[in-house]
Amino acid sequence: TRILVLNGPNLNRLGSRQPEVYGSGTLADLERILNEDAPEGVEIDLRQSNYEGQLVEWIHEAVDTGTPVILNAGALTHYSFALRDAIALLKEPGVPLIEVHISNVHARDEFRHTSVISAVSTGVIAGFGFDSYRLALVQLTAFSGR
Ligand code: DQA
Fold it and tell me: Is 106 a residue of the active site?
């Protein structure tokens, strides 16, 4: 089985972007860590785009293929109704999507306290650095969600 790990705007700059907030690890480091964590038979398909429409299309792909998703939507989290509507499409086929954030968004700027995607996500993990993704991977591979 495959798990999509989707990353939104500016996350290709991890490593040099505000390391005091996001740490010094790069997206390539994250990919390596998740591959190390992934149980036998679980394939990590990590992608990043700075474009809202690309993320919408990747969510559509998850709907059509029934692939579970770990999503860090970056700033789109706070205002993208297009992404929210795409994520809502996962409900019917029953495909899980976990919203993740590297930083604790609730301890930061006011505009980061709002997520327009949380209500259509299966669950939310924020504030644990790259471990936010690792915890989501554990949830998707080890637990049934009931
Ligand atoms: C982020 C938090 C967002 O507010 C921000 O725009 C990001 C990264 C995080 O992982 O902490 O790009 O999603």
Answer: no
Residue holding tokens 């474009």? 51
115 lines ligand 1 (CB under 6 A): no
The residue segments making up the domain with residue 22 are 2-142
Atom of ligand 1 nearest to the CA of 101: 10
2 vs 121: CA distance, rounded Å: 19
Residue 87, number of CB atoms within 10 A of its CB: 28
Q: How many domains does the chain have?
A: 1
Ligand 1 binding pocket includes 103 (Cβ within 6 Å) = yes
Backbone angles phi, psi at 4, to 5 degrees: -85, 130
58 neighbors 4 (Cβ within 8 angstroms): yes
Characterize 111-146 residue by residue with b for buried, 16 or more Cβ atoms within 10 angstroms of its Cβ, and e for exposed.
ebeebbbeebbbebbbebebebbbbbbebbeeeeee
Question: The domain spanning residue 102 has which CATH number?
Answer: 3.40.50.9100
Render pLDDT for 86-134 as a digit per residue (tens, 0 to 9).
999 999 999 999 999 999 999 999 999 999 999 999 999 999 999 999 9
Neighbours of 97 (CB within 10 A): 26
The pTM (predicted TM-score) of the whole model is 0.96
